[in-house]
Amino acid sequence: MSHKEEFLQSCLVLDTETNSDDYKIAEIIESGFVIREGDGWTIFQEFHKPIDRLIPPKVESICYITNEMVEDSPAFIDSKETFQSVVDGYSAGYLVAHNHFYDMRVLERHGIDTTNHNWICTWRMAKKLFNGVESVEETNLPYLRFALKLDVPIEMRCHRAGNDSYMTAKLLEFFVDMMEESGLLDKDAPYGPQIAQWAADPIIYERMPFGKHKGELMTEIPHSYWQWGMKNTDWFNEEADNFDPDLAASIHKALGID
Question: How many angstroms separate the Cα of 232 from the Cα of each of 206, 220, 223?
Fold first, then answer.
């Protein structure tokens, strides 16, 4: 078995659809994951009825999951043991998600323990692999699905937990191939630890990725702007959700700070 295939089989790729984009109050309305079987991915997904609040129209319009569709489904809390058992089956491997921070926090809020698991975020991989690549305009999953021409059936709708898990898995395959071709992987060593470490290392932005100075070289942005950011944002607060370690590392490099 190749190192690539060994790595893919060690991955549980998952996604959650929720009734809010705020993980502190979000309730899971659909859970999904894919596992590697043979040379493909098998999809699992399940509806869940929220307990505290209905699915708002905005969410219904995005994921096409309505309150009527989940009315007779169990709340996630009633089936969390099954989901936990699946997660625990990959304790020696990797949990993979696109923007893993959100899914990790949502699952944690619902009683799923992933503290002993290694996470790999394909959103972070995308930001790192396409850092400075102007032809790739966005790094969200629906955009990358089409921009990279992933092998995903056109009828497979985005923003459904199982479907997004499948797209994330195909994206992961694409990225492993990119890393192989770019010489980012030692082909004689297991891929999992290499990919996890590479993804965790800071992304050094050459140009500001957002804000009033978006697109400008980091080395040309006035120091006064960074001083303003330290006083008025959470970019540099390691305890805040908005803490951006990549931006901090990029600023340090631009300023010549070790």
Answer: 23, 21, 14
What would the pLDDT profile of 159-193 be if each residue is shown by its tens digit? 999 999 999 999 999 999 999 999 999 999 999 99
pLDDT for 241 equals: 79
For the chain, how big is the Rg over CA atoms in Å? 19
Buried b (16+ CB within 10 A) or exposed e, 106-140: bbebbebebeebbbbbbbbbbbbbbbeeeebeebe
Q: By the 8 A CB rule, do 197 and 186 touch?
A: no
> Which residues, in sequence order, are CB contacts of 175 under 8 Å at separation 6+?
122, 125, 126, 129
Q: State in Å, rounded, how far the first CA of the chain is from the last one.
A: 42
> Mean per-residue pLDDT for 218-228?
90
